[in-house]
Write a structure and sequence with these properties.
The complex is a heterodimer of chains A (109) and B (115). With 109 residues, chain A is mainly beta. Helices cover 0% and strands 52% of the residues of chain A. Chain A is built from no helices and twelve strands. In chain A, the strands form three sheets. In chain A, strands 2, 5, 6, 10, 11 and 12 form a six-stranded mixed β-sheet that branches. In chain A, strand 5 and strand 6 form a beta hairpin. In chain B, strand 5 and strand 6 form a beta hairpin. Chain B contains no helices and eleven strands. In chain B, strands 2, 4, 5, 6, 9, 10 and 11 form a seven-stranded mixed β-sheet that branches. With 115 residues, chain B is mainly β. Chain B starts with a strand and ends with a strand. Chain B is 0% helix and 50% strand. Chain B is globular and about 40 Å long. Classes of the chains: A mainly beta (109), B mainly beta (115). Chains A and B meet through strand 5 and strand 6 of A and strand 5 and strand 10 of B.
Chain lengths: 109, 115
Amino acid sequence: GNSVTQMEGPVTLSEEAFLTINCTYTATGYPSLFWYVQYPGEGLQLLLKATKADDKGSNKGFEATYRKETTSFHLEKGSVQVSDSAVYFCALATRKLVFGQGTRLTINP
Amino acid sequence: EAQVTQNPRYLITVTGKKLTVTCSQNMNHEYMSWYRQDPGLGLRQIYYSMNVEVTDKGDVPEGYKVSRKEKRNFPLILESPSPNQTSLYFCASSSDRGEGNSPLHFGNGTRLTVT
């Protein structure tokens, strides 16, 4: 079946550091790929998405590129801020959404 | 403001005492879903509903019930809660199951503890 694997957390960085959170997937067909973010005490909200191979999703300085050849959708940001501290979920969708286990990110000032 | 509202935010109960977690959305979405979030397991779908009076099991439906009598409401019912249902629960809605152009909109969660 379809599945998503994210890098283990927690991840702790200093402000202005470069961020990468790895995400790989297994799927039949051609899934859409998503990153959702969960800020403390809140529900998840869509951060970015890509619906076909080589598409790049971007939002709030975050980017992720749909790589079909490596079945990956890694999340990157060039300079993180304290306000980026949250849990990040990679997800794929064919007929339904399947979420990864989440990666907790903490940014220290 | 477009939102998904869950109540209560926190709930502590005892084994076997029936409870209901309410969920309401004001976006006229046809699709609604319940998830539970557990450490290391991400979000797992409990039940979903494609429209009024249409519900179906997700990945972990055992011990839960749902109903969809109105488009805006999708309550989650635990008839006889057990400690392994202690978790963080999220309700979500979308106009297209969240897989296409319309994202899933999530409530703020209900933290349930069953002792």
